[in-house]
Amino acid sequence: MTDPANSSFTSIDQYLESSLDTVESTENRVLELAQQCGLPEEDAYQLGYAVREAVVNAVVHGNRYSANKKVHLLIRKQGSTLEIVVEDEGQGFDEQKQGDPLAEENLLAQSGRGLMIIRAFVDEVDIVRTEAGGTRVAMRKHLPATDAV
Questions:
Q1: Based on the structure, what is the number of domains in the chain?
Q2: Which of 34, 98, 143, 149 is most buried, by the most CB atoms less than 10 A from its CB?
Q3: Mind giving me the DSSP string for the chain?
């Protein structure tokens, strides 16, 4: 058996339309790549769902469905880590203004749980405002080490 962390995949760098039509195919692509890189099925599905949430946030809240704006998707394997970066061209996001999704007044809200889901499903996440003013969500998932046979 070979070490999945040494798979031949290195990176994908593309721009997505600001449409929810891109969400499912992006999630499926991440799921496939995560499994190629050796993530167990459950972890791969969780990573795919985290990316789904990040892309939905970029399209809906960042770019506000604007046909003139794109969502930048970067997927790269660096050693034993799979990194996925989702960046929008919106007006930025202040995480401090985000309410607690588990607070009683927010439990029935239609949105507001995406970041909580992302944080639960990846090993590391950084959310920063870009120089252009948008939001960049960088998610990292550590790949399992396996013994070569």
A1: 1
A2: 34
A3: ---GGG-S--EEEEEEESSGGGHHHHHHHHHHHHHHTT--HHHHHHHHHHHHHHHHHIIIIISTT-TT-EEEEEEEEETTEEEEEEE--SS---GGGS--TTSGGGTT-SS--HHHHHHHHSSEEEEEE-TTS-EEEEEEEEPPP----
72 close to 54: Cβ distance less than 8 angstroms: no
With respect to residue 28, please indicate whether it lies within any of the assigned structural domains: yes
CATH number of the CATH domain containing 99: 3.30.565.10
| Centroid of chain to Cα 117 | 10
Q: What is the pTM of this model?
A: 0.85
Task: State the residue range of the domain holding 14.
Answer: 4-142
Tell me, yes or no, whether 126 lies in a domain: yes
Tell me if 147 is assigned to some domain: no
